[in-house]
């Protein structure tokens, strides 16, 4: 039987936390639930303490200084404190469905497989949250991929380097990974990134480890969409969006210089990083630098950042 540690980073999630924890408690395979609390300003810490006192498998941890360090550092804390053979993640405002670990039970019989990922559904908890989410992501019912994949196909698919459209990123809530694989490859969340640290982690994980798709055609967990979801607050191609995209691609770029041998992947990451680096420039400096970059490599015009006159 699987031995799973579920890591739940907790920050201002008092409204949702008990449902989230209960959804993980239902599984016999879940041996511990780690609540990594990040100096909430609501009563989340009190709820964590109550839950930990009621159930022996629920364990509460805080940062050594009991401060606020962000989602990346808080997930790293959870990984550090975990004792399970496998690690799964769950956001404190989301919850698992009963089929969450069905694919894992079979897949992890193969010792080659380091991680399994699946699909996550959406539940709109507020009308404002729904409008903000749909304005950015349209009416997407599942966060998943378009076809089964494993091994290097997952890494290339996440970067958009496959012949077929791999689809969107799979969500961290639907990932289960061997802890030994993280330790062997020294994989942690980049604590510099306040957003996109999950995407950064997933791409690096897909390169270093052997991942396999599990249930991708129906939800294994549910994301709660509400007024305070950080990812929906950022307007696409706004200065804030471009800056955060640059930090994300720069993280991958610095990592790729030491780890990646695939020339297509290295070039793709480099171009994305350069494109968003240019996007945060302004005025004449931006225009001249952009034209120089286009002359050097026209492929930069095909990156995720679309250059138009309004961006200049």
From TrEMBL:
<dbReference type="InterPro" id="IPR029044">
    <property type="entry name" value="Nucleotide-diphossugar_trans"/>
</dbReference>
<dbReference type="GO" id="GO:0016758">
    <property type="term" value="F:hexosyltransferase activity"/>
</dbReference>
<dbReference type="Pfam" id="PF00535">
    <property type="entry name" value="Glycos_transf_2"/>
</dbReference>
<keyword id="KW-0808">Transferase</keyword>
<keyword id="KW-0328">Glycosyltransferase</keyword>
<dbReference type="InterPro" id="IPR001173">
    <property type="entry name" value="Glyco_trans_2-like"/>
</dbReference>
<protein>
    <submittedName>
        <fullName>Glycosyltransferase family 2 protein</fullName>
    </submittedName>
</protein>
<feature type="domain" description="Glycosyltransferase 2-like">
    <location>
        <begin position="5"/>
        <end position="127"/>
    </location>
</feature>
């Amino acid at each position: 039987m699987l031995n799973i540690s579920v890591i739940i980073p907790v920050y201002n999630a008092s409204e949702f936390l008990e449902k989230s924890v209960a959804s993980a408690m239902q599984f016999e395979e879940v041996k511990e639930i780690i609540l990594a609390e990040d100096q909430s300003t609501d009563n989340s810490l009190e709820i964590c303490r109550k839950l930990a006192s009621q159930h022996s498998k629920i364990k509460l941890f805080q940062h050594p200084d009991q401060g606020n360090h962000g989602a990346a550092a808080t997930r790293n804390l959870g990984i550090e404190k975990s004792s399970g053979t496998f690690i799964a993640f769950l956001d404190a405002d989301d919850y698992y469905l009963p089929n969450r670990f069905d694919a894992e039970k079979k897949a992890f019989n193969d010792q080659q497989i380091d991680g399994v990922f699946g699909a996550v559904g959406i539940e709109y908890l507020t009308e404002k949250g729904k409008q903000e989410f749909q304005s950015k992501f349209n009416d997407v019912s599942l966060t998943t991929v378009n076809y089964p994949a494993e091994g290097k196909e997952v890494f290339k698919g996440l970067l958009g380097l496959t012949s077929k459209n791999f689809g969107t990123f799979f969500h961290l809530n639907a990932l289960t990974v061997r802890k030994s694989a993280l330790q062997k490859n020294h994989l942690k969340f980049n604590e510099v990134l306040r957003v996109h640290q999950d995407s950064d982690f997933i791409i690096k994980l897909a390169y270093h480890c052997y991942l396999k798709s599990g249930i991708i055609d129906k939800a294994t967990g549910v994301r709660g969409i509400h007024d305070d979801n950080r990812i929906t607050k950022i307007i696409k191609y706004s200065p804030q969006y471009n800056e955060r995209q640059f930090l994300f691609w720069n993280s991958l770029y610095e990592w790729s210089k030491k780890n990646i041998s695939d020339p297509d992947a290295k070039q793709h990451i480099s171009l994305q990083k350069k494109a968003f680096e240019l996007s945060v420039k302004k005025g004449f400096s931006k225009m001249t630098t952009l034209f120089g970059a286009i002359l050097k490599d026209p492929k930069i015009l095909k990156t995720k950042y679309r250059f138009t006159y309004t961006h200049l």
